[in-house]
Amino acid sequence: MLGHHYTRTFLETAVASMNAGCNLELSYGMRNNVFMHIPQALAMGNITLQMLRDRVRPLFYTRMRLGEFDPPAMNPYSVLNLSAVQSPEHRNLSLEAAVKSFVLLKNVQGTLPLRAQDLPGKRLAVVGPFADNPRVLFGDYAPVPEPRYIYTPRKGLETLPANISFAAGCREPRCQQYSRAEVVGAAGAADVVVVCLGTGVDVETEAKDRRDLSLPGHQLELLQDAVQ
Questions:
Q1: Do 162 and 119 meet the contact criterion of CB atoms below 8 Å apart?
Q2: Any idea what the CATH number is for the domain that residue 124 is in?
Q3: What does the radius of gyration of the chain's CA atoms come to, in whole angstroms?
Q4: Is the Protein biosynthesis keyword given for this protein (predicted)?
Q5: What is the spatial distance between Cα 35 and Cα 54, in angstroms, rounded to a whole number?
Q6: Can you give the pTM of this predicted structure?
Q7: pLDDT tens profile 54-83
Q8: Which H or E element spans position 184?
Q9: The dihedral formed by the CA atoms of 38, 42, 46 and 51, expressed in degrees to the nearest 10
Q10: Which of 33, 41, 45, 47 is most buried, with most CB under 10 Å away?
């Protein structure tokens, strides 16, 4: 109604939504929200009581399975805390999922993987706004873990037996203020350069779309300077 103008009134929206199978509204806290018009739609015969029951049933079924109506002592989920969520078992599973979800587009001359036994004495530069900024590593709606569980690319690479240098080039994803000398200095003295670029929630989130998929600000220039 408000964005796409598919409907004209909240009542019409409530009827159309329920007929389409929708049973949950994100109302943004509006006092005059859509679901408050369901009783009126029911009284006018636009929807049936059976339809209303069919829409409500899955919601309460899920809430009951989550134990929301049980005493806390009977709810197994109430005892879960960070020690369970961030247990070694779960963190190892997260690591496995991360390793298995990487997409390698090109591997010229077998550059990867970087093997620890080949790195002693090598100079490795990690550059870019995503190289050592924990805040930008998490997507929209992502839960942010405790700092001790966050490994930036720089922090992870520093566990390798190599001489690690670091240059952000720009401090945030928009990359409006870019220091070419900083990047060229680090990359030029390195045997291996790891460039960390992207967007992050500063650039794109829900309701913050972009017209194209180009790297923000001077990030493309940073990449070209790092690999020239």
A1: yes
A2: 3.40.50.1700
A3: 26
A4: no
A5: 15
A6: 0.76
A7: 999 999 999 999 999 999 899 988 888 878
A8: helix 180-188
A9: 80
A10: 41
